[in-house]
Amino acid sequence: MRTRSNMKKDKLDQPVWYPEWGTLLQHEAFSPAQREQYRQAVVCYLRYCKQMGQRATVASARQFVEQWNREENPSASELATTKSALNWFFQTARRHKPLLRGVPPLAQKDSGKTDWERRLNRRVRTLHYQWRTEQTYRGWSWRFAKFLKDKPVESATGDDVRAFLSGLATEYRLSVLSQNRALNALVFLLREVFAKELGDFSNFTRAHKRLHIPVVLTREECQRLFAALDGTMRLMAELMHSSGLRLTELLGLRVKDVDLASTASS
Fold first, then answer.
1. What's the domain count of the chain?
2. Pair (78, 54) in one structural domain
3. 183: domain CATH number?
4. Are 109 and 189 members of one domain?
5. What whole-number distance in Å separates Cα of residue 239 and Cα of residue 254?
6. Looking at the structure, do residues 187 and 114 belong to the same domain, yes or no?
7. Which residue in 130, 73, 82 sits closest to 252, CA to CA?
8. Are 106 and 134 in contact (CB under 8 A)?
């Protein structure tokens, strides 16, 4: 039986995911000075979480305040403002339903058709995996479920995984990349979602590695391509060429992701 103290501890340790706090803070009925004080306090706390490898919880916020008070010896007013800012952060985080970055609006409402898919979906989104990863994991999990036929997904074994992966190589002749994606998806499903110990199933039939000579543009061809573009499209093409970003990574790039100081000095 859970005691009241255990329930209280669970609440203190429950993490929040609240990436939109800065935007919402700008719409609060605070004075500009108070908004800036709150922003600085929350930023310092989140930086502390990152440095300490902790998640944003009430417990870690209390640890942050204690350490900051001990090391910086702030005034009573500064201490009160910091506590008030963190209280605002967690109160609004509990009320706010976070947006799933990169996930289309209709897909956010798709929690899955079966119990196992809903559990998989919750786990993927709890860990903040990319939308493409969620699509891949769900797709391969459904192919595996169809392979199992009437056998429940949660009762699958390492032997089932081995047989499925071998079939991808021998019957469907899929590439090494596709087989590896299927492997990652099934390991995540069974180990992360259902906490199953699969044992050693590494002796499945491996897909045949095909020889592929990559086709690349010469330096002159790249220069001609960039010359034919202008504005945003040219900037995107040059970023992809110089940094090796994938298209989805490029589309998700934000100004804060670019070290402008180093770029300017290079």
1. 3
2. yes
3. 1.10.150.130
4. yes
5. 13
6. yes
7. 130
8. no
Region of 244 on the Ramachandran plot (φ > 0 left; ψ -120 to 50 alpha; else beta): left
The answer to whether residues 92 and 45 touch, using CB atoms and an 8 Å cutoff, is: no
Residue 262: the pLDDT is 62
In one-letter notation, the amino acid at residue 181 is R
Torsion of CA 231, 233, 234, 237, to 10 degrees: 160
What's the whole-model pTM score? 0.53
Inform me whether the pLDDT recorded for 108 exceeds 90. Answer: no
3-state SS string for 183-215: HHHHHHHHHHHCCCCCCCCCCCCCCCCCCCCCC
Contacts of 254 (CB under 8 A, 6+ apart): none
Among the listed residues 15, 13, 47, 30, the one whose alpha carbon sits nearest the alpha carbon of residue 81? 30
Range of the domain at 175: 105-193
The larger pLDDT score, comparing residue 256 to residue 170, is at 170
Backbone angles phi, psi at 74, to 5 degrees: -75, 165
> CB–CB of 210/169 below 8 Å?
no
Provide the token pair at 100.
């799933």
Q: Determine, yes or no, domain membership for 5.
A: no
pLDDT, tens digit, for every residue of 213-241? Answer: 778 889 999 999 999 999 889 988 988 88
Question: Per the domain annotation, does 206 fall within a domain?
Answer: no
Tokens coding 182 = 């299927």
Which long-range CB contacts under 8 A does 197-204 form with residues at least 24 apart?
A: 198/157, 198/158, 198/161, 199/157, 199/158, 200/158, 201/158, 201/159, 201/161, 201/162, 201/165, 203/162, 204/161, 204/162, 204/163, 204/165, 204/166, 204/169
Q: Tell me if 244 is assigned to some domain.
A: yes
Radius of gyration over every alpha carbon of the chain, rounded to an integer in angstroms: 25
Using DSSP, state whether 140 is helix, strand or coil: helix
